[in-house]
């Protein structure tokens, strides 16, 4: 039944994973979000537990069961995710940021429900923190993996993110491709490590992809202190 054998790839490692979308409130009954369902991050958490890791999963609002053995922390907004991630970062050995974090939030959140009126209205937006960028800046011993969701020229944009955010590796997804990206059970990706190692992963389940990513990361981490 459990097609994934247990391994010891990440035995003794502390793994921090983010998953899901964030919600950015306009008023008590309205928010901005994105189509992320959290499946990739939860698959990573599940496989990391199976690899013997001590797993912390920080997730936006999703409707998925917590992987057995993972410590789950629920957050709603990009700001909350930022705060929780920074709290857990110093102790982590491997960090994988698969969450689809909002880049913008409404500048103002109304305390009471806005009433509709005949005309349209404009919402002013402001930037959220780029959590991954901040982790890259503060990186010490951590092996840091980011995701890139792209619809055009994925490889170029992905490489730029690897560089700019000071990552050790990036998983690049073409979310315009059928069966890849948001909401699906499968993904096709290009995985590029800072070390120069690159892998093309054809369409496979998110659990299979998670296993591949964790195997690659654990190999790069051998020799690092546990
Ligand atoms: N990310 C983050 N905090 C943000 C935005 C993105 O930590 N506020 C992380 C995501 O979790 C992902 C990576 O950055 O691991 C790339 O996200 P993506 O949306 O593809 O790239 P951005 O850097 O946000 O650039 P853009 O959306 O303009 O392509
Ligand atoms: Ca973004």
TrEMBL record:
What UniProt keywords apply to this chain's record, in alphabetical order?
Answer: Decarboxylase, Flavoprotein, FMN, Ligase, Lyase, Magnesium, Metal-binding, Multifunctional enzyme
Q: Which cofactor does it need?
A: FMN; Mg(2+)
State the source organism's domain of life. Answer: Bacteria
Question: What does the record give as the reaction this protein catalyses?
Answer: (R)-4'-phosphopantothenate + L-cysteine + CTP = N-[(R)-4-phosphopantothenoyl]-L-cysteine + CMP + diphosphate + H(+); N-[(R)-4-phosphopantothenoyl]-L-cysteine + H(+) = (R)-4'-phosphopantetheine + CO2
Q: Show the GO MF annotations.
A: phosphopantothenate--cysteine ligase activity; phosphopantothenoylcysteine decarboxylase activity
**UniProt: CTP binding residues:** 103, 113, 147, 161, 165
Q: What is its EC number?
A: 4.1.1.36, 6.3.2.5
Q: Where does this protein act, in terms of pathway?
A: Cofactor biosynthesis; coenzyme A biosynthesis; CoA from (R)-pantothenate: step 2/5; Cofactor biosynthesis; coenzyme A biosynthesis; CoA from (R)-pantothenate: step 3/5
The answer, when asked if Transcription regulation is one of the entry's keywords, is: no
Does this UniProt record's set of keywords contain Hydrolase?
no
What positions does the domain DNA/pantothenate metabolism flavoprotein C-terminal occupy? Answer: 10-218
Q: How is the cofactor bound?
A: Binds 1 FMN per subunit.
Question: Where does the record place the region Phosphopantothenate--cysteine ligase?
Answer: 15-226
Primary role:
Catalyzes two steps in the biosynthesis of coenzyme A. In the first step cysteine is conjugated to 4'-phosphopantothenate to form 4-phosphopantothenoylcysteine, in the latter compound is decarboxylated to form 4'-phosphopantotheine.
Stated family: In the C-terminal section; belongs to the PPC synthetase family. In the N-terminal section; belongs to the HFCD (homo-oligomeric flavin containing Cys decarboxylase) superfamily.
| Descriptive protein name | Coenzyme A biosynthesis bifunctional protein CoaBC
Which organism's genome codes for this protein?
Answer: Halobacillus kuroshimensis
